[in-house]
Amino acid sequence: MIMTVRTKAVKLICAITAALATMLVLGLTGMTAIAASALGRPQSGTYLGYPSPEADKRIIVGVTAVDKHNGARYYCSEVGESVNYFIGDSTLIADSDPARRLAWLMDEYDTQGDGLTLAAIGVLVHDHFDVNMERWKMHRDVIYAEYPDIGARVDELWEEAGRNAPLDSTVEQTYAKGVREGDVSVQILNAYDEPVAGVAYTVTLSGPAVFVENGEATISGVTTDQPIIHAWRATEAGEVTVTPAYDVPALELVPGTQDLIRLSERMTKQGGDAVRFAARKDFAPGIVTETTSRTVDAGEAVYDDVTVLLDGERNHWLDGEVLNATGWYFAGIPADRVDDDLAPDENERAEAFVKRIAEFGYEPAAYGMATFTESGQTVRVQAMTELGGDEPYLAPGDGKFGTWVWAIELDEQSERVREHLTHDIVTPFLDPAETNANRSNLMVESTVTEHSATVGAELSDTITVGGFPDDHGSFAGDKTLGLGADRAHAQVSVWWAGDASDPSKDDDWRPAGAQVPDEDEHHRLVGTWDYPAVNGRIRVGGGEPDAHGDAVHITAETHGWYVFVWSFAGDDRVAAAFSAYDDAWERTRVRESPPMTPPDTPDEETPPDEPETTEEPVELTLVTQVDPERVAVGESFRDVAMIRGSLPDGAYVTFSAYKAIAEGELPGVNDKLLDEARSVPQPAGVVDGAAAVRKGNAIPDDDQNIGVNDDTHDDENRDTETSDDGYATDAADIAGEEEAGRSDDAGDDAAATGTWTAASPEISSPDAGFVYWRATVFSAEGDVLVTHELGVEGEVVTVTEPPTVEVPPSEEPEPSLPYTGADIGIALAVACVALAGGIALLMAAHRRPI
To answer: What angle do CA 295, 299, 301 make, to 5 degrees?
Structure first.
């Protein structure tokens, strides 16, 4: 039992000893930790003392404690409490302008500063971070009373910190070359928006861009008193965000019996406002085009204004580079297909788009090329017949529509441009701004029914019109294209000219000039009627209806001149046109005297009488006959005219032949092979009248510019003639020749009566078809004395294709038997055998005894 007690006692003593040892160890450890967190008292001269307003003792403001290891200074943030110089864990104070300023001051005056300066820093700590501001105000008043200069020093330090502590950052992005390259400008600012030098920063690009300096998305540096610029370049297309970050000194709160604040050993990273911008590596020009004219007349050049534009500030021209653009002009688009607009597919190549247009039925009629060196540049391009050629394309004048398609083709650019141009840039087909109307020119052939008449006669005119589009009258216009509707009607006006009171003076008012006159006592508009503005032949007068179905009657009520004038005001598909007021075929001379009576036609066997001057003129008649009526392409033919009646002095005959047309086509509205070739009539009996034929105006095949006024005859046309030998002779010479068959005493107005002949020059047609002739007898003044309509019997030549001559194949002679080496050898062998046999027989015969 005693042993047990002793044993238990020993065990108890051991346990107590172990516990005491453990407590001792723990206590020593705790003391070591406390000793490690203990602060030292501040040095003299780093603070100012003042009487506490709460107790009868002096306390300090300024540096309150000092780290014994690194000398870091601590400032009080809880006024009136005692400091035990033992501290616990610290926490970062939230970032703010006061925190940054005080952190800068604590860093700046970490090892320097007099008592007033450090006390002023202590005042600022209490001003912004004291836990009891009401309590602090009492102490502050005492301090300011004790030290009158401290208030000014507090203000100085606050401003000094405000100018040196980083408060904000700015990042600006500027484009240098469109959105492909640019600069990022970095600045760290103080509280007064002034740059702060010496601040470490980092700028990061988030998106398709890198910095040129290092080829990376992040770059770092230290600020100066000027903005720092870093260049960037795009790597693809997209949005880029620029985020700045910079180092900011921080404060830490150290809790204890009295809360303290110190400068943190750690710098905090603060980011400024992010900047976003668009970046793109590709070069994206746009094409803006506009046709120079909404309407183009036949034979005119076709132009287009082409402009290359970049889309505002986010695009930039590649320095020193040019862009090449190609244009295709499509023509012949009918009115009912102007809505067949077609847009290129996304990233579709120009070549493929043009092929797709061809599937619509349109091939390029002309081409254009343009080169550009800057954005906004406009080039006026003329259409050419070949790509890259120099032969101008001329509008066809078919009354249809044309449109441009332009493209900047990737394959046609320099290597550098191709690096930035991602695909062909192509404009749509039938873009309204690029579409025009190719106006057709009209051709009008017309003649009055009678070129001379008496008062009371009914007048009429036959007009043949060609050149209107076949669908003219059906196009209602297109506001999108800016084109107006077809004009439905043409007009025919009849004018009277003369001296109503004196018939002898009517000739003084002979129609002159292409334009109609103003109405006065010698000129009067008889009437105007509408007729359909379409191709075809119309009859004006004689009771025939106009466009509105009303019968038209035109009566010669007064002696003088009656002139028919056809006109069309024009529209966006057909050019304006009119017949000339002085057109000799379109006027009728009306007299008061009765018409002349034709003479009896002599028998064919009776030779024609020699022309003789008669006192009573005989009405002229005209009989014409082509010679021959049927030829092959390229063969010669002509026209011969016979005139009977009274032929005035100076009268002449003209011959016109129209180019061959197909059966069923309207004659007279196409071009001519021969245009008003003059011939001086000769008395019948001269061989075919050929000796009197003057050189005519043969029309070249490529002359396409026959207008509606080509048949005008004026004094200028009549002044000179061209003789057979090529020399010009004047009208007096011609008149002298004609006097051979006329009376010498006939006078100026004399007319020889008889039979006359005239012949045209010989011509040929390069094309098959029907060639229509017209012969007309003119007076010396240019008035039509007698003529005929196109297509009368004997005035049409049928031109056929030359027959195809089939050349029979040549007969080859029968080949002779071949002579070969083998055949010759056999023949020689046979001959040798025969010769040897003959010799042997002779020898045998010679040896036989007789």
So the answer is: 65
